[in-house]
Amino acid sequence: MSEIKNISRREFVSATTKTVAGAFLLNSVHNVIGISSSPKMKLAIVGTGHRAVGMWGKDVVTNYGESTEFVGLCDINPGRLEYAKKHIGINCPVFTDFETMVHKTKPDTVIVTTVDGNHHTFIAKALAMGCNVITEKPLTTDEVKLKQILDAEKKYNKQVIMAFNYRFTPYRAKIKELLMQERIGRLTSVDFNWYLDVYHGADYFRRWHRLREHSGSLLVHKSTHHFDLLNWWIDSDPEIVTAFGALEFYGKNNPFRFTHCRPCPHKDRCKFFFDLTKNKYLMDLYAANKKYDGYLRDGCVWKEDIDIYDKMAVQIKYANNVQVSYSLTSYSPYEGYRIAFNGTKGRIDAWIHQRQSWAMENFNEFQLTDNFGNREFIQMPRIEGGHNGGDILLLDRIFLYPTQPDELGQSAGLRDGAMSILTGVAARKSIDTGLPIKIADLSEFVPQKNRKG
Fold this sequence. Notes:
Layout: H1 9-15, H2 20-27, H3 32-37, E1 41-46, H4 50-64, E2 68-74, H5 78-88, E3 94-95, H6 98-105, E4 109-112, H7 119-128, E5 132-135, H8 143-156, E6 160-162, H9 170-180, E7 187-197, H10 200-206, H11 212-215, H12 218-221, H13 223-234, E8 238-246, H14 280-285, H15 290-293, E9 311-318, E10 323-332, E11 335-343, E12 346-354, E13 363-370, E14 375-381, H16 390-399, H17 414-433, E15 437-438
Parallel strand pairs: 1-2, 1-4, 2-3, 4-5, 5-6, 7-10
Antiparallel strand pairs: 7-11, 8-9, 8-15, 9-10, 11-12, 12-13, 13-14
Helix pairs in contact: 1-2, 4-5, 4-16, 7-8, 13-17
């Protein structure tokens, strides 16, 4: 086997010309003359937190400056706005009122990166004001807010793009390719277990995500990624969801607590103490601007107001009769996931461990086994960049070659976003009620046996 190493996006294109992922990238090479001769896409961002300032701000300016132009930034926090403008490296006006920004700057596309619970407000307003929308996941946090988005999309006939970067990670694309080729026969069931470690997982409980009203719970904010992957891989819609969940580690499950980490009297004995002062970027973006909105980036993970679950188990029946067993644990000793696809002719096993010294291979590996024991190990090189290269490949698709062939169906729209959040909303409702929840009871969408149908 040839040596596998961490590679850049450019090296990946060169090294994988005969694979589906490589073909996808090569088919996507843009016409430089066409881009340079066309008007630049005018962009505006609402919500200038970490994700907006980094991937949707600085990365877009650095890599897509020839085809895009930022015309406005909007946030309720004026201090964070000014920092974002400086960090991204742009010289556009900033606004604390969204409608004023859109009226004055007239963007073609609005990028929505606010707190999840507010996505619907800005998506619907942007559509009504004649803008297309790119939104971070999740699309929104419940079925009522979803209806507002769907009504606006129908009425104003503008486009909503979902930023599902996980679809673009090359090894996940390879799994999609194998499933499309029916290498394990007809898919029948999936086992999917996701582990957030005590660093990454804990961070959701110290930020705004800890409150259901803001995030919809981790079943919506985090699991939306995973449910969308399942919908995409399975190529069908979820139909019935049953779930269990509890808050038994974070929140009130500790003898001591405080408001936030920096002044905490318990910091010397708390293993979850987070020293924000060691991260200048976060200090400048959040702590320096707390006076405007009171937001604490280093909130206590033991706060008694935490009302999301920290362990979740979900059973999903799809319209094509595929069954899924899914779980999410937010206090694991290691970070990663394991997934298995069971088919009529075999099985695919995939596993990823991250941020552990013993698990930092320079490749991702999965195993394909047929029903009579023949095994094949497939290794995919790690790609540099956020989310194992998924971020930059998603941005390429949006800003460089949106009309190029999409053999794997990686681009995601409004219906994809809706089906991913409806799975999480149904799971949350099932936990609350103790009952199975039908997706069709939550939305106008009728689950389809085949997503393309």
